[in-house]
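Exercise 7. Predict the structure of Putative disease resistance protein from Cinnamomum micranthum f. kanehirae.
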Amino acid sequence: MASEAVVSFVVGKLGDLLIEEARLLYDVRDQFEWIVGELRRMQCFLKDADAKQKEDERVRNWVKEIRDVSYDAEDVIDTFILTQTARDSRRTRRRPFLCVKRYICIVSELTTRHRVAKKIQHIKMKIGDISSSLHTYGIRDINVGGQETRLNIRRRSLALYEEPELTGMQESMTTLKEQLINEEARRCVISIVGMGGSGKTTLAKKVCRDVKDNFDCHAFIYLSQQYGIRDVLIRIIECVMSLSPGEKENSNEEYLSKKLRDHLSEKRYLVVIDDIWTMQAWDELKLFLPDGLSKSRVMLTTRNKEVALHADNVINHHYIRLLNENESWELFHKKIFPKGVVCPLELMETGKKILAKCHGLPLAIVVLGGLLSRRDMTFIAWSKVLDSVTWHLAEDSNQCMEILALSYYDLPHYLKPCFLYLGLFPEDYEIKSKDLIRLWVAEGFIQQRGNEIMEDVAEDCLEELIGRSMIQVAHKRSNGSVSTCRIHDLLRDLSMSEARQVNFFGIYGDNDATSSSSSLRRVALHRNVDEYEIINRSAATLRSVLCFSNSSFFLSRLLNRGGKLLRVFHVAAVGRQENDLPNETGEAVHFRYLKVKRIRSLPSSVNNLSNLQAIILTNCVGTLPNAIWDLERLRHLYAYNWDIDGHPRLSNFRNLQTLCLHSGSWIEDGLYKLTNLRKLGISGNVDSHHRALSDASEKWSNLRSLSLVEYSSNIPPFVSFAHHQNLYKMRLVGLIKNLPKMPLDLAKLTLYGSQLQQNAIEILEKLPNLRILRLRWDSYCSEKMICSSGGFPRLESLELDCSSTRSLGVLKAVQGRRQAEHKWIPQKTRRHVKTT
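Solution. The predicted structure, encoded as tokens:
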């Protein structure tokens, strides 16, 4: 149900364009403002309509019409701005005495405006028809608030009566029991947090049954996203005390609330609230759950971490994990075979392939296990299930995919496109959070929030999706932030299914596409495919290309076929023998994000890309044109080992957050002006610029990551890094005569060729937050490494490059002193030491 998100995104984008591009819009501005106003009014109905369209074809068609007209409006304004920008660019290059060409240009401009005006008029008519249909088809009074859907009624029944199947949760069960029956006097609220289908309800029911005799009374209720307080009160009252038929029928909410509160205030009670979604829901429910000193307990199950922390920010809540491989097989086997029966060997391999699709999610395992228990125990029957796992999970009687989809429907509109975007990435792909955040910003999904930097707002969105159990953290950085994340396969299937309905993106690979539309907005290439199919079908509407295969994508072909509304280009290779971006790149004036590998140069026409926010060039060495300095909106420039042609103008880069370049005169010409820098990487002759670097470092109050690579000389003798409170990561390559003072919050330090002695260890071991220390090739020269008893208080990982006997001796000394666990890592001559 992404229609609300799509229209909200388009309305927000059109509103921004009306402000930013007012100079270009001229006399069509009023008409665009009318369109924006009408779409905003339609948004009032979209949330309820989204929830209802699955069961009502009228609503489904109405929502589709709004979505389509929103896309049409976006296309018209993007094309208009593209045309006007190109004309302005040509006008600046025209000689003033060429009157004939000027006359032709004026006629062309009038023709363009006339064509745009006709398109706008057509859109206005369509919007008028859509508005009329609200009344004609009886859609205006859509309201599902307080009504339970068929799925919620079924889930409430299952939550109360289904026999729990507990596998892999014994440790969790023990911990929860201890928390429920301990002697703490206050009313504690203990939450079980996890993604949909992870077994929260099963665990809560089992624990409740085991500890209920320790309480005077107990209640177990299923809440759902739509609930009525009066209904909830009646359900709890019926669990803990008697309620006459007359009271049930005639009593108001105030009477029931007082009756329940008075009864519970004298008891040691246990109330389990299953599937609570919002902090507001808890704020309503806690009013009739007395908070005395009777050792009472409330247990919540929720998909949202914030709800748990809001209900009780003192207690340790339980974050439920997915099952490991052995636990998954145990549960799978239980559902298929009677006790004592072993899975036939000929079915074992196919069964494990089916199980792998579940990725440890108990609900999916139970659904597929139950399905196979009703099938013939043959290789053919099981293979058919393997070939259609997603379909079976969507169509099963337990509504597996619908249960997962509830998390998506509950997302606020600004998070829905962010979640859908995750479906573009390949299955089991570890997504770099920095890439994802930059892509979200470039796509226009992130709303401005006061004066905050957009990337910070996007990072909060990422954390919120994690807190809502929609994304899994794969790895964290040394400072605790998210480094990489992944999405569970079933949630990825959900995102692709929803994206297909709203034409959000298409995925190509193995002759299979998730969308057959001829007007795709985004495409992802997961395997080597014929790019002509994509270009011929969707060039005119395409906004984003993400390529995760090694196949080349010819940007010039896409641009020449009309694909000039492109915003995002994230590919491995550009498909030209000379490995250069085409000069036509400058015609795609909406470009926001450019990430490519293995190219040698950018065209000078890049200066036309005034909206460009990120240039990321990897696995390549080349020269950047001087025109790069005209890109005043650039926020990220990642081009290690690239030189810059011409004289730098760093004063234009006030918004720059990431700068990774080969050293050059630009360091002397205003590096200190880049006060918003968060990541800085310089390679090459760093030492010769030590004075400029030292002066500039005083201005980098926002710096988080620093990399200096000096192969031929010394790392510059900076006075101190101690004042950099946000700097948590440093990588220094080159000889270091005197180790500079390090920031107290430094969490990760990597050194190459530094030739440190024992006195450097005495400095490093005093860093209170250092978690990762990597002493790579020739970085430590002493034959011993002596650490004091209180040294390295938070060190978690120590890597030493054992390329010499001397370094190996140091390694053994460290291992012996700390009694640390160690293991070989892929490089033949390097050991990885994990400290205890």
